[in-house]
């Protein structure tokens, strides 16, 4: 196993500062960067690249990642005006504004499809892969840090590689990774959520390593906000429905997305009757680690993990058996249809709005302005054993309904939504036709102030005929 914070002696001549490494990235480069859900990204080198941009030394960079990078990194790169293309997901306000103004090409892609799209050359051949590591040895075995993402695939495809060894990342990560290397990049089925199907390291070609940088920059996870009363009410309805759907039984492996409502779900599970919980997610939250430490969760499987001091302290308290209970996976597996379907995952996802038939808009305000991108919620919904959509009935104090006659942008099709939950109730849509779905969502999930208008719109649409009554 590679020793933490080490690099092979043969790369000694390539040790340099972050600024010198960033200077190796050419004008107009396609840059593939490690990192997944704001964890495990090469912060020092990318921030140095942004410095070059602010100095007017570089433009035209196309940035490809597995998911979003740290907001401070993406804001710096976009604010420097050097990005011309970005894929596939982001949370940066700077990137969002430039995408909505047409100042950069923002390419949405489902995370389940992203490895295959990348491997097929959909974004060209990367000029440089910039990846964060816990360590690297003379055999080319690279240990990722708090995420895996597409690190191995990026290094295999790129013309050159810059490795950033981050000494701020904890040694306890050693041995937790499961780096998948299937040739089709389609993932694989799993027998159980904790099964390992890869290696605890990525293998890279040392001859293509152009620079090695040492840094000491912890991830900067966003502190979770306390659940709102509406979010708590949504979760109460969810747990009441789960008690009926799974009486006296353990839950299937649970997937949650990101954001406040997803965090509220994890908080609600802490007080639930369920034991031996398993999570199979893209991003593992600190609250999930609390459940692991409390003994209520048996295994956590995901593509990344938060590394705030409280979460790290909990992980250290679990001792030497951590590898059997926590797996950090390549996105081919943690987001893959095969694994999600084979495990019968209980997918708990959220959206901006839902129409009366169950179609979900999770990414665009008004159908036009992108927020973050599609992520992998649609793929989880399509492959899940049970697909549940959670959202408030309304926003802006009840004035803006989140249940609408027709969504302005479709991310999750209604065929992939089994159950809808709001703070007012639960609509189980299984076995219903489109008109029945519409009536049930209006009656049980819409805000009372908007039910009459939604009902009138539905009845007017029904008068026009057709199987899917929409105006």
Structure notes:
This protein is of the alpha/beta class. The chain has a 7-stranded parallel sheet, with helices on both faces. The protein has a 5-stranded mixed sheet with strand order 12-18-23-27-28. The protein has a 4-stranded parallel sheet with strand order 9-17-15-13. The protein is globular, with a radius of gyration of 23 Å. The model has no long low-confidence stretch (mean pLDDT 95).
What's a quick, concise take on this entry?
This protein has 471 residues and is of the alpha/beta class.
What characteristic shape results from the CA principal axes?
globular
Gyration radius, rounded = 23 Å
Average pLDDT over all residues: 95
* Strand-residue proportion: 15-25%
Count, helices: 15
Number of strands: 28
State the end-to-end distance: 62 Å
Residue windows where pLDDT falls under 50 for at least 5 positions: none
The class by helix and strand makeup works out as alpha/beta
State the helical fraction: 25-40%
* Strand order of the biggest β-sheet: 4-3-2-1-5-8-11
User: How is the biggest beta sheet arranged?
Assistant: 7 strands, parallel
